[in-house]
Design a protein that fits this description.
By secondary structure, the protein is an alpha+beta fold. About 15% of the residues lie in helices and about 40% in strands. The protein is built from three helices and twelve strands. The protein has a twelve-stranded antiparallel barrel. Strand 2 and strand 3 form a beta hairpin.
Length: about 200
C-alpha cells in the first residue's frame, strides 16, 4: 500500500498557562512547507472553554491564499452526553463543504466517522484506550467502515521529555493511500486538528 505522509508542527507555546490561538506549519514528507494553518478565536472562548472551544481554522498555501477552512461548533465534551458529540466541517474552497468528521460514542475508545460532502460515511478513525503515553507515539488508525482493514494512520509523535513537558509544540503525522479521494484526504487532514484539541491540548 503506497502512503503519503504529511507532518504538522504546532509553533505556538503556552506561557504561564495563558492560552493563545494555535498556529501550525504543515510540511510534506521531505520537509517542504506546504501550508500555514492558523486558528481564529476570541480570548473568552480560549480561556473559558479551553480544549472544548469552538474554532475556525484557516489553511493557507505558501502564497497566503486560503485553500481550506475547518469549523468546529461548541459542544459538550463529556463521554456521558452522546447527544453532544464533537464534529468538524471541512470546506474547500472556503464556503464549500467537502467533508465531515463526526465523533462516535463509545465508552472506552475514541472513535470517529469520516463523511464525504453528501454526509455519507466513508472511513472510520479509532484511537487507543489511553492517549497519555509517555515516551511513545499515540496512533489513531484510519479504517474501513467495517473496521477490518487499516488504510492509514494519524499519529501524535513523541518529541522528547523537555519539549513535551514545557511547550505546546506537538508533531503530528498523517498517512493515507496516494489514490485516496482528495476530499477524503482533506477530511483526514481536518481530523488531525480535532484530535489535537480533544486529546492533547489539555495535557499541556
Amino acid at each position: 500500500m503506497h502512503l503519503t505522509f504529511i507532518f504538522l508542527f504546532c509553533r505556538i507555546t503556552v506561557i504561564l498557562g495563558w492560552e493563545t490561538n494555535n498556529k501550525y506549519m504543515v510540511k510534506n514528507s521531505v520537509g517542504q512547507q506546504v501550508f500555514f494553518v492558523a486558528e481564529e478565536n476570541d480570548c473568552c472562548n480560549r480561556q473559558f472553554c479551553g480544549p472544548l472551544r469552538s474554532f475556525v481554522i484557516h489553511v493557507q498555501d505558501n502564497i497566503g491564499q486560503e485553500v481550506m477552512t475547518l469549523t468546529r461548533p461548541l459542544k459538550c465534551g463529556s463521554c456521558c452526553c452522546p447527544c453532544c458529540l464533537q464534529e468538524l466541517e471541512i470546506q474547500s474552497p472556503p464556503g464549500n463543504p467537502i467533508g465531515y468528521v463526526i465523533q462516535n460514542w463509545h465508552p472506552f475508545l475514541p472513535k470517529y466517522t469520516v463523511q464525504n460532502e453528501k454526509k455519507e460515511a466513508v472511513l472510520k478513525i479509532v484511537g487507543p484506550f489511553c492517549s497519555c503515553r509517555c515516551c511513545a507515539d499515540v496512533n489513531f488508525d484510519v479504517l474501513s467502515m467495517d473496521e477490518t482493514t487499516k488504510v492509514g494512520r494519524i499519529s501524535k509523535q513523541w518529541t522528547g521529555l523537555v519539549r513535551e513537558a514545557f511547550t505546546d509544540a506537538d508533531n503530528f503525522g498523517i498517512s493515507f493511500p496516494m489514490d485516496l479521494d482528495v476530499k477524503i484526504k482533506a477530511a483526514l487532514f481536518g481530523a488531525c486538528f480535532l484530535i489535537d484539541f480533544m486529546f492533547f491540548e489539555h495535557s499541556k
